[in-house]
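Action item from last week, closing it out:
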Amino acid sequence: MTLPPTLITIGLLCLSNVFMTFAWYGHLKDLNSKPWIVAALVSWGIAFFEYLLQVPANRIGYTVMNLGQLKILQEVITLSLFVPFAFFYMKEPLKLDYLWAGLCILGAVYFIFRSEF
């Protein structure tokens, strides 16, 4: 039994986003006392694994979605994973701004996918 391309795309994009989030923001907590070049090199190393997942995710997703749909899907996944990362890992407070941003992205989902509904 094979999974539909949309589910494979979502799964791979979720995994790639975990790596991306740590590559982009993890150094702010873990490497803040190191020179920026160290943080950049560590981030590039993490981003390598993100790209190993993101590139096939987009290639698979592009067989069933258009480019705009792929981008909005990526943004939904990014925000969905970023909020727990910010709260649990970075110890940032939860703010209503995340809810408002989520509602804006929900609007983007509606407009980009409305021809599918």
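Closing note: The mean pLDDT is 95.
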